[in-house]
Amino acid sequence: MPGRAAAGHWVRSGALIACLCGAVQASCVFGAPVAGSVGAYQYAQDWRVSLQVPVTCASGESVSGVELSSAGGRVEVSTGRFLGVMRFGASSLAYVIPNAAALRVVGGTLTLPVTVPAGQWGAVTGEYTDDLTLTVIF
Hints:
With about 140 residues, the protein is mainly β. It contains one helix and ten strands. The radius of gyration is 15 Å and the shape is elongated. This is Spore coat protein U domain-containing protein.
C-alpha cells in the first residue's frame, strides 16, 4: 500500500538485524531470531515487534551483558535506550530498543523489543534495513 512501511518486509529485515552479530566470542553463538506477532506500521501509533534471539554458550560460559551498535545508531545515555535508523533508498524510519543498556540473556534467549515510533509520515513501502551489531560481554 503506498505511503506505508510494509511490516512483513520489515520483519524480515528485523531478523537480519538481529543476525548480524559482529563481536561474538567463540564460546557463544546466536541462533536464528524469531519475531513475535507482526502488524503494519500505521503512522498514527507506535509499531512494536519483539525479536527472540537464542544464545547458546559452551563450557558453562554466561553472558553478563549485551551492547548494541550500528552506523548512525547510538545508546541515549539519559534513558539507556538504543536509537537507530532503518533505510530503504532515500527513505528512513527511526526505531528504538528501550533499556538497551540493560539487555541480558535470560534462559538462553536475548529479547530485543523494537519500537518504530508513530508519526514518521514520509516513509514509503519497502524493505527497511539496518546493520545492528550485537556484542556479548562475559
